[in-house]
Amino acid sequence: GENSARMRQAICADLDWFGIHLDRLKNDNAKGEMPIHSSQSRVQLWIMPTNEELIVARQAKALLEK
Question: What are phi and psi of 31, to 5 degrees?
Answer without folding.
Answer: -140, 125
